[in-house]
């Protein structure tokens, strides 16, 4: 999970920092930087899918244009990314294995390439039946010409394995070769690799559910393999095809998604094979005997399938970024889907970052805090706004109280409701 995300000179931000919790809600007007926070989390994952080590602004998940388009207008020709977090490592059985890695990583990118990096990586585990903690601090400056790493190895008796700085974005450490007795070197190599791969693993466990999603065709070509995530820059048809194929192949996943639909929306969902290797999404109200094609049941269900399927597939400890979970949903349905998201996040330790324009989603989460189903430490709320003259955006944390209230009130939502009511009353007064 991520505990801090900081950006400098990125898109509309001169400088911004947020501290995500189990559930983090990003609110504010359009164009104030909410999606930019999510993009900054997804970019390392997309970059790690490429072997070049350079920042991948255009890939299978995001298409953001040239690196120059990420630089704040009028700012210097670099972008700073800062990430802090922790990841539980599923290592090998005792007597040796890494259990937890915490990291703080700052990277400056120039022209798409890593120019400067400063980091600290701390690993706790068991090494040769003894509790072990290793703290690595490193810096890489001037594109790699100046490097410092301390310590630069892990030792066990008379053996050691070397740790090395990496020049790749989002991958601060790499495990090098070892020397010494064969069994100890093998143990150290595995241990070092677990530490070095932990930070990239944290980024790889970021999942993105974009606003552009839905199931709007009566059927899709059936694929042959299930996947672990559906977002792709190859278009909405490909997204829906992989979603329905995965649901159809993985029956337990389909059952879980259907159970959540029943809990939140009072309907059940299923996929059904059609002639000519096609697959369709079908929906029925709870208690009904027959299913109808989803396209004949309204557009609101399709986007929710994406959200709940990704929620079910993401492993514990992962981070799921969802743009506009409320799309096409009735206010009551928004609240009930939010409750499902929150309970799953709490039960399975899955971090949620929600960019939303819906007061119903935020109020539901605050109600869960008030009822004790979430703690105030589980929820962070950030309000985004942009200066009209400079075009620079900022993010303000709205403190959540133990009773589910916000210390400074809920900005940007009810003010508009009151304005509309005042305008309506004024119009009625003129009529009379």
Q: What features would you describe in this structure?
A:
This protein is of the alpha+beta class and 432 residues long. It has a domain at 216-302. The protein is globular and about 85 Å long. β10 and β11 (173-179) form a beta hairpin. α4 (236-249) packs across α5 (251-265). The protein has a 7-stranded antiparallel sheet. The protein has helices at 34-48, 182-196, 198-204, 236-249, 251-265, 301-313, 331-348, 359-370, 414-431; strands spanning 2-8, 15-18, 23-28, 78-88, 97-110, 113-127, 130-141, 146-150, 153-156, 159-165, 173-179, 206-209, 220-221, 267-274, 278-285, 292-293, 319-323, 351-355, 379-386, 393-398.
Sheet with the most strands? 7 strands, antiparallel
Helix content: 25-40%
Main β-sheet, spatial strand arrangement: 2-1-4-5-6-7-8
Oligomer: single chain
Contiguous uncertain segments of 5+ residues: none
Radius of gyration: 24 Å
Tally of strands: 20
Task: Please sum up the structure shown.
By secondary structure, the chain is of the alpha+beta class. The chain is built from 9 helices and 20 strands.
Notable characteristics:
single chain; 432 residues; alpha+beta; seven-stranded antiparallel β-sheet; six-stranded mixed β-sheet; 29% helix; globular
Topology:
Blueprint: E1 2-8, E2 15-18, E3 23-28, H1 34-48, E4 78-88, E5 97-110, E6 113-127, E7 130-141, E8 146-150, E9 153-156, E10 159-165, E11 173-179, H2 182-196, H3 198-204, E12 206-209, E13 220-221, H4 236-249, H5 251-265, E14 267-274, E15 278-285, E16 292-293, H6 301-313, E17 319-323, H7 331-348, E18 351-355, H8 359-370, E19 379-386, E20 393-398, H9 414-431
Parallel strand pairs: 3-18, 3-19, 12-17, 17-18
Antiparallel strand pairs: 1-2, 1-4, 4-5, 5-6, 6-7, 7-8, 9-10, 10-11, 13-15, 14-15, 15-16, 19-20
